[in-house]
From TrEMBL:
Residues 162-257 form the PTS EIIB type-2 domain. Residues 4-148 form the PTS EIIA type-2 domain. InterPro entries: Bacterial_PTS_Sugar_Transport (IPR050864), PTrfase/Anion_transptr (IPR016152), PTS_EIIA_type-2_dom (IPR002178), PTS_EIIB-like_sf (IPR036095), PTS_EIIB_2 (IPR013011), PTS_EIIB_2/3 (IPR003501), PTS_EIIC (IPR003352), PTS_EIIC_2 (IPR013014). This is protein-N(pi)-phosphohistidine--D-fructose phosphotransferase. Its main location: membrane. It is a multi-pass membrane protein. The keyword Kinase applies. It catalyses: D-fructose(out) + N(pros)-phospho-L-histidyl-[protein] = D-fructose 1-phosphate(in) + L-histidyl-[protein]. Its EC number is 2.7.1.202. Keywords: Cell membrane, Kinase, Membrane, Phosphoprotein, Phosphotransferase system, Sugar transport, Transferase, Transmembrane, Transmembrane helix, Transport. It is found in: Cell inner membrane. The chain crosses the membrane at residues 290-315, 335-356, 388-405, 417-444, 450-473, 485-518, 563-583, 603-623. Residues 287-623 form the PTS EIIC type-2 domain.
Amino acid sequence: MIAELINERLILLNLNATSKQDVFNELSQALVDNGRVKDKAAFVDDVNAREALGNTGFEDGIALPHAKSDAVIAPGVVIGISRAGIDYGAEDGGLSHIFFMIASPTNGGDHHIEVLASLSSKLIEPGFTQALLAANTPCDVMALLTKPSQRTDHNGPTKGLIIGVTGCPAGVAHTYLAAEALEKAAHELGFDIKVETNGSIGVKNTPTQEEIQRADAIVVACDKQTDMTRFKGKPVIEVGVKEAIRDGKGLINRALNAAPYQTTGESTQSAATSSSSSGSQNWRSNLYRYLMNGVSHMIPFVVTGGLLIALSLAIGGKPTEAGMAIPEGSAWQQVLDVGVIAFQLMIPVLAGYIAYAIADRPALAPGLIGGWIANTGSFYGAEAGTGFIGAIIAGLLVGYFVKWVSGINYHKFLQPLVPIMIAPITGTLFIASLFIFVIGAPIASLMDSLTAMLTAMSTGNYILLGIVLGGMAGFDMGGPFNKVAFLFSVGMIASGQTQFMGAMACAIPVAPLGMSLATVLGRKLNIFEATEHEAGKAAGAMGLVGISEGAIPFAAQDPIAVIPANMIGSMVAAVMAFSFGVTNSVAHGGPVVALLGAMNKPFIALICMVVGAVVTALVCVSLKKARKAQWLQSAA
């Protein structure tokens, strides 16, 4: 397949490019000159659009930019080598030297996926990248690419069968690199193997039930949801997709000694995995995977809703006493309404797909419903819902409850009804009852108590009040604490005390602006996921118009580092606003309010917001960096 899509004219051994965009332009020009692409600018735009979904710079100096595009006349691959190296934003923080750009027609099949799969077998070969960098002519490169893969096939009887599952949520390359790594490792260990790939073109190479039954072990190296119930009773390990690339042999050996997979409760660990540290690590790994599944599905709603709301308010909005509003009859109101719908859906989606990750399809409906109830305070007599924190709780509770319900040994006549009726209905009733009758009352009472506390503090020390208001604003970004602080500040406007809303207006945008800045500062430290880098751009836009929810994906994915950073930065902004006498006469926050004249000291207000965002970014990066160093030390 590679030989059909590449020739010596598409091999550039000494790139002139000094930046990522230069690489795209130089490689795209080679495709144009070779008659593979008709419109260079359009193709580069499509490559950048694909890059926005997740950086294609991987470990060991390799990058795989690719796109399906209307500008592609015929599928092709161009290879470029940069001797000096380019800062491509690779996952390991190193410079990228080798670039494979894959061009595929929009309606021309999945050539880029097939090429990535073929390249995977080469990229995992020991010494391949070094040999590629040492090549002196395009002919040498073609010889390396077309040389049969170096695989150690086991002759004679095999030791047994291994089943693998690989998949990555944001791209395709890791899916196939992991599959090749597992296949290579299995053959070297003397096992047959079948690897299911969960790529962007769907699930391929799915093992049959008969193959699963005779398998000696299952290796699930997957960062996206997969059906685990089919592996019940088989030795299974679940890890991230990158672990398969790093240590395929080690994973197979671990899987051979793993405990049988259980569909209910916690798996009984085998002697090889019974240590408390291993159990704790597996639990944390599973929890992270569940959260990632919810966050990855939520991010498109956050980005879509946030940007639509930001755009409509920035262009069509005007400051009023009730907040930023769009004049009656303006078309921007429809844009705002669509954005609001996306925002209303993002919290249920977070809960639903966390539950789905735990208990598969039967948990999706009750998870979505539970997330909606958690985020709608009127269900349980509260002025505001529990926000993303409630959604995480709802998703986890629903997931484990439905997993338990689905694992009960039902009569054979009832078994078909479990996934479509019994589990969804009981799961929905369980989470609805829990929030309405158990969790709801304490939440409503807490909000009343917080309001009373703020009222009592309103005549006291402004520094202390700034710390409290800022901390509440940064804690849950639209949840009950944030809402209580906001509603209290809005209520004080009516009594002529606009300094409270001034402090809130400066604290509200700190979390999204701070997280947007943190993704920029932390790019070379490899402390953010690729999806977070893209969410950071949207968060920045949302922060400009005072939408604190832009920081929710970061807080949901890593609350230990993000929430304290958001709180500290928001506190700084609120205290500064009180200290400088900043006031705000409208029920809204963010730079847009200052720029439109609703704040008495707009320049000072902007400084407060900027300082708070910088503090948040620095604290977040520091915490993430420290935790990463601690993890690496413990792993060593």
